[in-house]
Write a structure and sequence with these properties.
two-stranded antiparallel ribbon, about 0% strand, about 700 residues, 4 strands
Length: about 700
């Protein structure tokens, strides 16, 4: 098999969808952070099987007390002379120490006047905090926001400050405003954040510490086991000789690697490092290739069995099992990748028609046939299958992923033996066994470190949820959103459609400024109630918010996945973002189907089998029509002009309204688009004939 470029892992990149680059630590700081991160990873696993007797919130206090100081040691402050790129500065060590004390304060069994006294005494003071409690809570607020700034940038901390300002100054707003409230004092704000279940230790952090960390560890171990390399090799081998081989390889690699990383940006960069040379040879321009890689990478956040971070919060908010959320995501994921694959096929035909591709894309050494790869390394799929099977038999998601992680670790052993090129590399000596164990533990440590930005984001998201809950802001903004929809018409269908479109725009804009996790939390507490008030089912409303929060990753002008892909292909960032938006366009419309009619829930696999099938089939045809409109190519006809493209777009939009009458009209419009395409082709032929 020809040597493939090395797969770039998320840990090696040091970046994620919600993350600034981490420091590359060495020496004592590197060893300390590595050991502590490994210890926290093992604690997370221990909590699955032997939960701490004091309860889940006690565990969250300990978890945050260990994780948050690691942020200060692992991420730069970007404060000029006080900053260091190669290791923690004195300030970082001081902040890490203060963070440790402040986070552990609620559980320290030390009485300090009327404060302290241990965890039970701290809880007993809820609503009546001692002055020292308020000081410690205020310090933790500052430290959480600073950790969030270091890992994700300044926007999310600013959003949190806006919510805090609203909580404190809300009493100064005109009382005839619907969003006005009595106002909260500092003690009430700190109490809501520090000593309640809706602040720092609320659902977002609970999900991060209980689910996200475990799935991140699983992804890191999968990379260590050789699964990522196998997925890329398999994708290259499957499509080597087809005309659209390059594009199919990039999309398939993105989908398979997405099951490992669950990160759009890391997946786009990883697949780009391997597939960009193939795409370039096939005739793809840098911006076009970057857009495809970004769109395929973002699909990783939508793809079972790992999905993205926000999917765990969906399960927690709706009090359903994680496997239920996986089921809801299945058909929309297939529709997402269908749209990308159809665009890839259109691109391949257009590239060949324009003469930008070589006649034989299979020049050079051919890779190992796919059936041989499956025979030798197909066992890498087994841990993914184990997760699904264990979830289906009723096991909790946390235990299922732990067992799958153990299996992936064991599968790394045959991978090393099969990939070794010499007998020495395949031999298991005491030295090689020791090295294997060290690398395995290091992968767990890397997995924990890669989750630190998510921990910071989830802790900061607690500020938003606490202020929204305490002031009633969510219900008021939801009422305003519905009122805006009602301004156009009294018809319930029009109100719902208008509200859904406004909500989609709001979520897309929100995602430009904050990470996916925070975008979902804010969207759910504000937009979720608006949709629920219009009798949209909770699963449909939650998945609507989830998908638009994720799709902000390919929305200009801050599409992180597109920026990462552009860096690989050498493309300009903004054109790459627009290409990514073109590839992902059908995915922006499919979530609207969830909420526009009751039939839209069939796309989530809810309802009778025949209903699910006809709605899914209509959605597939609608996605195909939109791909033809955006790509300017209709299968069986070839290139189509503006008239046919407009009609095809209208057909696609109509087919995405899940209603039998609308489906019939959409199919009719698609036939008209085909006729218009044939007429345009005949006209071009006649004008080109001398």
């Amino acid at each position: 098999m020809s040597a493939a470029p090395p797969v770039v892992t998320a840990a090696e990149l040091g970046v994620d969808d919600e993350e600034r680059p981490a420091r590359v630590l060495s020496g004592f700081p590197g060893r300390l952070v590595g050991v502590v991160a490994l210890g926290l990873a093992l604690l997370s696993v221990w909590q699955v099987f032997r939960p701490l007797a004091q309860g889940s919130q006690y565990y969250l206090v300990i978890f945050l007390a260990v994780a948050l100081p690691l942020v200060y040691l692992s991420y730069r402050s970007w404060w000029g002379p006080l900053d260091r790129a190669d290791g923690p500065s004195v300030l970082d060590w001081v902040l890490a120490a203060i963070t440790l004390v402040v986070c552990l304060y609620p559980v320290l069994p030390i009485g300090i006047g009327d404060a302290g006294g241990g965890y039970d005494a701290f809880l007993d003071r809820q609503g009546m905090l001692a002055p020292l409690d308020v000081v410690m809570g205020g310090l933790l607020l500052v430290l959480v926001l600073e950790a969030c700034r270091r890992t994700t940038g300044v926007i999310l901390p600013v959003v949190c400050l806006v919510f805090l300002g609203y909580g404190y100054y809300g009493g100064l707003l005109p009382q005839d405003w619907s969003i006005a409230h009595a106002g909260l004092d500092v003690d009430q704000i700190v109490d809501a954040l520090y000593n309640s279940g809706s602040g720092f230790y609320g659902t977002p952090l609970d999900v991060a510490a209980s689910y996200i960390v475990l799935f991140t560890l699983y992804g890191a171990v999968l990379e260590f086991s050789g699964a990522a390399r196998f997925f890329v090799d398999l994708s290259v081998s499957l499509f080597r000789r087809s005309k659209s081989a390059a594009g199919r390889t990039a999309v398939a690699s993105g989908f398979l690697l997405g099951t490992v990383s669950g990160s759009g940006t890391a997946t786009a960069v990883s697949t780009g490092a391997v597939t960009w040379p193939i795409l370039r040879k096939a005739g793809y321009r840098p911006e076009q290739a970057g857009g495809m890689l970004a769109a395929a990478g973002v699909g990783a956040i939508l793809s079972p069995p790992t999905l993205g971070v926000a999917a765990f919060i969906v399960a927690e908010y709706l009090d359903v099992s994680y496997v239920t959320v996986l089921g809801w995501a299945l058909i929309p994921t297939l529709l997402y990748y269908l749209g990308i694959l159809l665009s890839v096929e259109i691109d391949a035909r257009r590239i060949h028609a324009e003469g930008r591709a070589p006649a034989d894309l299979a020049d050079g050494p051919l890779p190992t046939p796919w059936w041989k790869l499956l025979g030798r390394f197909g066992y890498h799929f087994s841990s993914l299958i184990v997760i699904v099977v264990l979830l289906l038999v009723g096991m909790s998601a946390t235990r299922a992923v732990v067992y799958a992680t153990v299996l992936a670790l064991l599968l790394a052993i045959p991978d090393r033996m099969l990939r070794g090129s010499t007998s020495e590399e395949r031999a298991w000596t005491p030295k090689s066994v020791g090295q294997f164990v060290i690398e395995a533990l290091r992968s767990l440590s890397y997995g924990m470190r890669s989750a630190l930005p998510v921990v910071a984001v989830c802790a900061a998201a607690g500020v938003i949820t606490a202020m929204t809950t305490k002031t009633g802001l969510g219900a008021q903004l939801a009422a305003l959103l519905v009122k805006a929809g009602s301004a156009l018409s009294d018809d319930p269908a029009v109100v719902l459609a208008t509200t859904a479109v406004l909500a989609a725009i709001a979520l897309s804009l929100l995602g430009l400024a904050v990470p996916v996790t925070a975008s979902f939390v804010i969207g759910w507490v504000i937009i979720g109630p608006a949709l629920l008030d219009l009798d949209v089912a909770a699963p449909a409303a939650a998945m609507f918010v989830f998908y638009f929060s994720v799709l902000s990753e390919v929305t200009p002008p801050t599409a992180l996945a597109a920026v990462g892909a552009a860096a690989v292909t050498g493309a300009k960032a903004m054109p790459t973002m627009w290409h990514a938006l073109r590839y992902a366009l059908p995915a922006f419309l499919v979530p609207l189907m969830f909420v526009l009619t009751d039939s839209g829930q069939h796309l989530l696999g809810r309802g009778a089998v025949l209903d699910v099938l006809w709605v899914s089939a209509a959605a597939c045809v609608g996605v195909a029509a939109l791909a033809a409109a955006t790509g300017g190519w209709l299968f069986g006809i070839g290139a189509i002009g503006p008239v046919a493209r407009v009609i095809a777009a209208a057909a696609g939009l109509t087919l995405l309204y899940p209603n039998p009458v609308a489906t019939g009209i959409g199919l009719g419009l698609l036939v008209v688009a085909a006729v218009a395409g044939l007429a345009e082709r005949a006209y071009r032929t006649s004008t080109d004939t001398p």
